[in-house]
Write a structure and sequence with these properties.
This protein has about 260 residues and is mainly alpha-helical. It has 2 domains: about 100 residues, no CATH class; about 100 residues. It is about 50% helix and about 10% strand. It has 9 helices and 4 strands, in the order E-E-H-E-E-H-H-H-H-H-H-H-H. The chain has a two-stranded antiparallel sheet. Helix 5 runs antiparallel to helix 6 and helix 5 packs across helix 7.
């Protein structure tokens, strides 16, 4: 006598549930699918950050920082203000737990900063900090010609209140000039370098518009306060030499006719 075949059992599944529906002949059990709940996802940076071009660096920089701000990931691409008021470059923490979070922030910042325009820079900074990459990208977009910086400083030093201006409009023009200076100032400028630049362009601004020294300094690239100081000294020395030579010639000529 043969035994009846065992009835196969179906393992429980979480993708459906049994629902009892009453009918005329009793109850019928049907299977209904459970709702699928997706895990929360972080918005893709590609939908928030524009593609970097030679003309939209400031917009791109602002969007990258806005994307990194939640979770304080932006700390890896921002300088830190000390208690003395000075700004220093971001440095990774020494605590192992904090360092792990820092490394996670750096990876996210690198992904957000990646762009076709600077693939070579990204490759060369592969084993460096994301801050070094950030500064390199910024440096490639910030104009450093003396004539461009001169025009920016002149726009600030030349701000004057017109008779029909209100004070808010006057201050807004000065503020706009400040932002223009920020856009064309090289990265990592120290307080001492910034003060030297203020003195440099204030001195250049005080020269007559047709002054030869003024035109020569503005035409150079990356001119510094020390460069201008040396040039001024050299011109003054040459002028004294010319005066001395002319005086000597005049004296010699007078002797010849006596």
């Amino acid at each position: 006598m043969s035994l009846p075949a065992p009835t196969p059992t179906t393992p429980p599944t979480t993708s459906s549930s049994n629902t009892v529906i009453p009918s005329g002949s009793g109850s019928v059990s049907v299977s209904a699918p459970l709702p699928v709940i997706s895990e929360p996802r972080m918005l893709s940076f590609s939908s928030l950050i524009p593609q970097l071009t030679p003309a939209n660096f400031l917009e791109w920089q602002m969007c990258v920082k806005a994307y990194l701000t939640p979770g304080d990931h932006v700390r890896v691409v921002e300088q830190v203000r000390t208690t003395g008021g000075a700004y220093v470059d971001p440095l990774p923490p020494s605590d192992p737990a904090d360092l792990a979070l820092w490394n996670q922030s750096e990876r996210l910042a690198i992904m957000a900063s990646a762009c076709k325009l600077h693939l070579e820079l990204i490759y060369r900074h592969e084993r460096k900090s994301v801050w070094d990459l950030w500064v390199a990208i910024e440096g490639s977009h910030v104009q450093q010609d003396a004539n461009v910086r001169y025009a920016a400083w002149m726009s600030l030093l030349g701000v004057r209140k017109a008779a029909d201006d209100n004070y808010t409009e006057y201050l807004n023009r000065a503020t706009d000039s400040r932002y223009r200076i920020d856009r064309v100032t090289p990265a990592r400028v120290t307080h001492e370098e910034r003060m030297d630049e203020i003195v440099l362009f204030a001195a250049v601004c005080g020269l007559p518009a047709d002054d030869l020294m003024r035109r020569q300094l503005v035409a150079q690239k990356n001119v510094s306060f020390l460069d201008a100081k040396a040039a001024f000294l050299r011109v003054d020395q040459d002028s004294r030499v010319v005066v001395a030579v002319e005086s000597a010639h005049a004296a010699a000529s007078g002797l010849c006719f006596t």
